[in-house]
Model the fold of this input.
Amino acid sequence: MKKKFVMSYSCGKDSTLSLYRMIKEGHEPVALLITVDKKVLRSWFHGVPKDLLNQVSKSLNIPLLLVECQGEKYADAFKNALIKAKNELGAEG
Done:
């Protein structure tokens, strides 16, 4: 059964492979969820600049769901973004 999903995406090889496999299985990505360090505007885990994240989104034709957060509020911000993806984008997984 085809599902709409939001991808927690780090821009690394593992999340890229997971995204590829989900699409190959026939599922539809509704957004790339990427957490961004609020202070430096780079992705948390690989330090990718925000402008490059926009280019990745455009080249993959998958909208971004950027979550700007600080370390102490990371988990809450991530959880809220998942709820938003479910309610506003119809993500099921």
